[in-house]
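Entry 14. Ran structure prediction on the chain below.
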Amino acid sequence: MNANRILVAVDDSDVSRRVARYVAQVVAGRTDVCVRLLSILPPIPASLLEHGGADDAQKEEQIEALMHAEREAFQQRARDDAEVVFADIKDVLRDGGVPDEIIETETFADRIHIVGEINQVVSDLLEVAEADGFGTIVIGRTRLARWPDLFRHHVAEELVHRARDVSVWVVG
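Output, C-alpha cells:
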C-alpha cells in the first residue's frame, strides 16, 4: 500500500464536497500523490433483474432483450450521473489547489451492485484499494447518499472496522 495513493469515495452530496475540500487542504500543490475519485453506482433495481416469465419462447426472448436494454440504459444513466459528480468534485479540488494531473476517476461500472448492502460497498472499496495499491481511503461520515442506512450502521463505520493495511480518513 502506498500512502501517496488516495482513494476518495464520492457521490452527489454536500458531504462529498466537504471531503474534497479536506483532501485539497492536505494535498494542495503536491504532484507526488494520486487522488482517485471513486463513484459507487446504485444497485440495479430488482424489477430489471427478473420477470414473471412467458409461456411462449419467442415472447420470453423479447422480454429478456427488453430487460437487458433497460439494464444497460440504467447503467449508462448511472455512469453519466457519476461523470457530473466527478466534474463537480474535480472543481472543488482544483479550487483548493490540487493539480489536474494527480486526479483520476473510476466508477464501479463493471461491478454494479445487485443488492445495495453496506458490507458489499465496503468490500468493493477495500478491494479497489488493495488491487490498485491505495494506502488511504477517504469517505464522508454520513452514508453515501444512494445507500440505505441499514440497521443504522454507516459505510464509514464499517470501513474503519474492516480496514487492514490501509488508512481511513473519515470526514464529517
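The domain at 2-44+78-171 is CATH 3.40.50.620 (Rossmann fold). Will compare against last week's run tomorrow.
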